[in-house]
Design brief:
- The structure is a single chain.
- Helix 3 crosses helix 6 and helix 5 runs antiparallel to helix 7.
- This protein starts with 5 loop residues before the first helix and ends with a helix.
- It has 489 residues and is mainly alpha-helical.
- It is built from 20 helices and no strands.
- The chain is globular and about 65 Å long.
- The protein has one domain.
- 50% of the residues are buried.
Length: 489
């Protein structure tokens, strides 16, 4: 079976629009998440499981409110093509109003959340974290301007700056013995620093404006988006809610830490690509052929990253936990393996939603998201009876069913076949089939080694075997892709 070259599969137009954005977004993400990774590893040794669990409980509530903080107006502004400046000022004004209201709403709501989770400390933590809504609203439209223009080079500095300020404050306060407040105030200072830097990098200055006609148009588009986002947050946080209610803050801390690595190494990368592909797809929404090629190309690129990352986390889970977080987190090892499998399943066809939003059919995305929520609720009803591992397996099961259905549905809207999708998955499948046995062989042959050296050997075997297969089977495609990204950088 002959595989089409990447430049043909992705489509030259989409590739040129997205290559530069993807490159700089990955640079920003790599640096900022590298800082987060080191910070988390340090804090895992300085703070207790209870500290992580309390913040995780508060973040569940924050995540729900985060969905409605702009009512989908940011996405609507990216997609909009007329009266953009007036629309931007309207969005800024609305975001600021909503930010203030959300921050204030947590004053009476925080005790209710704390009572539900039976953890009183959640009340002050949640009230302080609620200030991020007001702070973030001040720079929300500045972020949108950079995303509309696919100018992720300038987005690099605010992203890096926020991560660095958060790291310094969190570690400093943890060393000083402030416990859970190290995480809280680190987050607040990080958001504030990021907003200030966005204002420095983006010359646009807002004016307070509420245009009724523009507001109605933006809300009409954003309503389906925000409905999908609300349900997505429910899907993402149902597990946390169940664990927090049934098993308490300490066990939630273990689960949260186990998910931190696959979330940071892959889900964040997928979000990066989505933040670039949606604006790019929106720019070519009238050209269905380019849209089709762009979507197929995104499948290939995502899985080329997802397969080695997730296989590596599954195989090397034990030395990773020991080296990065310490022996006090050993019970996170099986969870890391299951959640890495979940992330791998979730990565397939990850950008389906971006296509629906770009072609102006967010209602299709909403319907699929509702289906996923139903599947998730049913899976959790069964899985929650089997502890944390059962909850993790519930995510794997629900998303596997949803992804299979998504493949069949998307073929109708962008005129592609399941065979074309499978062809895009082949390079990563071949690489994974060689990488897995190579890494497992090293894992078992280094049993008893120091965890650091064992991890180094496993990573080396995985990288060499996976890239070796890609070089033998995809050499020309890889060279072309590197050249395109280098030219756009």
């Amino acid at each position: 079976m002959t595989e089409p070259p990447i430049t043909e599969t992705i489509g030259r137009q989409v590739l040129q629009k997205t290559a530069r954005g993807i490159f700089w977004n990955f640079v920003a993400y790599g640096v900022s998440k590298g800082v987060v990774f080191v910070t988390t590893a340090i804090l895992a040794r300085l703070l207790s499981r209870d500290d992580f669990g309390i913040v995780a409980l508060a973040v569940v509530a924050i995540n729900y409110l985060s969905v409605v903080k702009d009512l989908g107006l940011g996405v609507a502004l990216i997609q909009r093509r007329e009266d953009v400046d007036r629309a931007a000022n309207t969005v800024f004004t609305l975001n600021l109003i909503f930010g203030i209201l959300l921050s204030a709403s947590l004053i009476p709501l925080a005790p209710l959340v704390a009572e539900y989770f039976k953890t009183p400390m959640v009340t002050p933590v949640l009230r302080w974290l609620g200030l991020t809504f007001f702070i973030g609203a001040i720079g929300s439209v500045h972020v949108v301007w950079l995303m509309r223009d696919l100018d992720f080079r300038r987005k690099l500095i605010p992203d890096m700056g926020g991560a660095l300020f958060k790291a310094v404050i969190s570690i400093g306060l943890a060393l000083a013995g402030y416990g859970v407040w190290a995480l809280v105030f680190g987050q607040l200072i990080g958001v504030l620093a990021s907003v200030i830097l966005f204002w420095v990098m983006v010359p646009w200055r807002p004016r307070f404006m509420l245009d009724p006609k523009i507001t109605r148009g933006l809300l009409a588009y954003g309503s389906s988006i925000i409905s999908s986002d609300i349900i997505n947050v429910s899907i993402d946080n149902l597990g946390y809610i169940v664990i927090g209610r049934l098993y308490g803050a300490v066990q939630l801390g273990v689960y949260t830490l186990a998910y931190r690595l696959p979330e940071m190494l892959l889900m964040g990368n997928l979000w990066i690509m989505a933040s670039v592909t949606f604006p790019a797809f929106a720019n070519i929404q009238e050209d269905m052929d380019s849209m089709r090629k762009g979507f197929l190309g995104s499948i290939r690129l995502v899985e080329l990253i997802a397969v080695p990352v997730c296989l590596g986390l599954i195989i090397a889970a034990e030395p990773i936990i020991l080296v990065v977080f310490g022996s006090q987190w050993l019970d996170a090892i099986p969870l890391l393996r299951i959640l890495s499998l979940y992330v791998l399943v979730a990565s397939v066809a990850y950008h389906v939603g971006d296509v629906y939003k770009a072609i102006g059919k967010p209602h299709v995305l909403l319907n699929m998201t509702i289906l996923t929520l139903v599947l998730m609720a049913l899976s959790l009803f069964v899985g929650s009876r089997f502890g944390l591992a059962g909850i993790a397996w519930a995510y794997v099961t629900a998303f596997f069913i949803e992804r299979v259905l998504s493949f069949f549905l998307i073929t109708h809207y962008v005129q592609i076949s399941l065979k074309e999708i499978f062809i895009e998955l082949l390079p990563s499948i071949k690489g994974g089939l060689v990488m897995a046995p190579a890494a497992l062989l090293v894992l078992y042959s280094t049993t008893g080694f120091d965890p650091v050296w064992q991890l180094v050997c496993i990573v080396a075997a995985g990288v060499v075997s996976y890239l070796g297969v890609l070089w033998l089977t995809e050499k020309d495609n890889l060279i072309q892709l590197v050249q395109v990204i280098r030219n756009r950088a």
